[in-house]
């Protein structure tokens, strides 16, 4: 990532006099619409508030901390100094939804000191973008807080008024993988982030965090009415976070916009709140489309374990490589290649080898065969969330993959929430949560160790994405919600509105390895997926990832040559992205420009209702274009006629509008090829 332009205004530091100590610190976004205020209010509690266009959005909300070995930090604070600055740069992503990202904000910081005998200090730093507010707490080194053993963070978000909320449940056994609840704001339970709300005035607010490093992941719980609070993920050691000062918390982020399309565009601020690339040259990180020895396991026609149904055999891998090469896919994921899948591996993990293949799988031979045909082997390290077993062995696995020429690995942490097996500070095994401080440290260790070998990481059952892919661009994708595999199992299957929910919730955090492209539209036991054929194609544009899978079995992909052509054509890396229309959980229409090429794609997904709309084509620019359209047929319906699809072409220009029908459970995908002037 490289800075294109940088303008840094002067830093103004003001030593607050006693008279100023009671005056709140204020700041506005660059466009003046969003205002932030922070100060020490009643009882000396540090409180902040947020308005947009003069209307309150977040009322007075306190900040503070509980500790396991020290008095709380909550009352008796006074403002002792403050500073402001403005910042404006444009930087380039090595891969992403936007090639160039503007990072423009006004920043205000306020340092508060306790009036008690401890005189502990905390500095609140807030950044105001035109479409977001973010703040974090900085703890300086100080004698009465050398080590912070945080029992809980007392951050509040007092939402003004009621409205709707889209959220998925936290602290349940299936980690992040729950369907979204759509409730009143006042009916939120304990939610994971990103969480999106729409107060009654129509403003859209998404709550998340950025730069989650060496800290516990944040969830959000309702206190009462519109008062929400942060809830950190637990730790087996007692404190949810243990850090020596000085340190900073992750950013607490509120994306704030007037509508859903703008909310999606605001997700760049999550990136902007992270540090620039620390890895240097990352030209070895390659966005790609891939196939896999994977879907058959979920259909139960193949197995991860050895035996008669074993999927990862040398013969089958070579067959998959031949299919991939013939259809322009440059990656092959192979799961079940390594010893350890036999028996009860779920939530155990101490049988896995990360260097030894099953006897019927020639790992070096398969990798070499693929490379000769331009198909890169994507390694797989399932751990069953037993990092006590994995961490001492992963280096040898990475070394082996590097020697073979493997440049990407999918990691997995399958276990129930709270089932992570780790070594505690006392050297004894402990059980941790997937987004606790221990796992936050672990995931970054995996990414950085793999990067030393020029290996990218696609994490499943991961820690949430908080924009660290800016700092570590080899963290190329992750799972972190319900993907296509749920449509194989049927427990229940993803409903038609699922993807329109994802766009304005989970996808605000970053790429998702959703694994689309099941053209058979069938799950296990030939049970139908709740989707039309056209929607499977639209997902390649709507659900962003720099790696995209054609998830179905090769025979099913080959049996649908028309739809397969779109999967072959669609890009995975982009110069620009525009959300043309959208409502949370109802509809998402997204246009993306192929990186380095005068070519656009549009994807549209809906919910269970039939929808008609015109797509404005002003984003195309000058000249004539060929629109290659893959749309729901006139009688398409996910319940009765899911395979009805129309594939057609027409010539268009930027002044045209493209009328589309989205069937119930349906979608549309369009490729625009420039025909010149």
Tell me what the structure shows.
The chain is of the alpha+beta class and 677 residues long. It has three domains: 2-272, Beta-galactosidase, Chain A, domain 5 (Distorted Sandwich); 288-480, TIM Barrel (Alpha-Beta Barrel), CATH 3.20.20.70; 508-547 and 563-677, Aldolase class I (TIM Barrel, Alpha-Beta Barrel). It has twelve helices and 40 strands. Strands 1, 2, 8, 9, 10, 11, 14, 15, 17, 18, 22 and 23 form a twelve-stranded antiparallel beta sheet that branches. Strands 3-4-5-6-13-20-19-16 form an eight-stranded antiparallel beta sheet, with no helix packed on it. A seven-stranded parallel beta sheet has the order 31-30-27-26-25-24-32. A hairpin with a 7-residue loop joins β8 (77-92) and β9. α4 (314-326) packs parallel to α5. The chain is globular, with a radius of gyration of 25 Å. Residues 1-20 have low confidence and may be disordered.
Secondary structure: number of strands: 40
Uncertain spans: 1-20
Percent helix among the residues?
A: 10-25%
The CATH architecture of the largest domain can be named as Distorted Sandwich
Q: And the CATH topology of the largest domain? A: Beta-galactosidase, Chain A, domain 5
Q: Report the end-to-end length measured between terminal Cα atoms.
A: 34 Å
Query: In what range is the share of β-strand residues?
Result: 35-45%
